[in-house]
Amino acid sequence: MSDNEAQVAERPTRRGAGVGRVLVAVYAILAIAATGRSVFQIIDRFGEAPVAFTLSAFSGVVYIVATIALGARLRRLAWITISIELAGVLIVGSLSLLAPAVLGLHSIDPFGRDSTVWSAFGAGYLLIPLVLPVLGLLYLRRSGPVAVAASGDDAAADPVAKL
Predict the structure, then answer these.
(1) Residue 162: Cβ-neighbour burial (10 angstroms; 0-12, 13-18, 19+)
(2) Interatomic CA distance for residues 163 and 55, integer angstroms
(3) Contact 131/151 with Cβ under 8 angstroms?
């Protein structure tokens, strides 16, 4: 074992350090926000926009599962949920702007009474719902076993450190 390999072996790896930790934190915040909002909308005014509010609850579940998957390093589950999230925000975002009535929305106002997390591509949430899955998928791609093995440097011991 070379000196370099010995140093890497002695270095403690910090689970979820750096970019990964920030990503999990943002997912957790969005999970709480989306779930809380959808629960309130469903309890308070489900009859006004049942499709939109059901999709809002679904987005909350997706964010919860993505948070758990990223935090526990369940890569396959993270890939699936973040891909579903990206498809959801693109589909719901497009429908909310082009055909809001399909979702039961009365307006395209992202801050409106019947808007959801994914309405207008998440404009009511500073477009974080649109950007977050892209960042999540890039993180998964860059921190994957293939990317780590191919790097061949000290960062291979801690994939998050090289981001």
Answers:
(1) middle
(2) 33
(3) no
**What's the DSSP call for residue 13?**
P
Tens digit of each residue's pLDDT (9 = 90 or more) over 54-92:
999 999 999 999 999 999 999 999 999 999 999 999 999
Q: What is the pLDDT of residue 15?
A: 45
- pTM score, whole prediction: 0.78
Alpha helices in the chain (DSSP H): 3-10, 19-45, 50-71, 75-98, 128-142, 145-151
Are 108 and 120 contacting, i.e. CB atoms less than 8 angstroms apart?
A: yes
Kindly report the number of other CB atoms within 10 A of residue 153's CB atom. 10
- Does some domain include residue 26? yes
| Measured distance CA(27)–CA(33) in Å, rounded | 10
Side-chain half-sphere CA neighbours of 115 within 13 A: 18
Q: What is d(CA 15, CA 76) in angstroms, rounded to the nearest whole number? A: 18
Asked if the structure places residue 4 within a domain, the reply is no
Q: What angle do CA 33, 37, 38 make, to 5 degrees?
A: 120
Number of folded domains that form the chain: 1
Query: Which range marks the domain in which residue 29 is found?
Result: 18-162
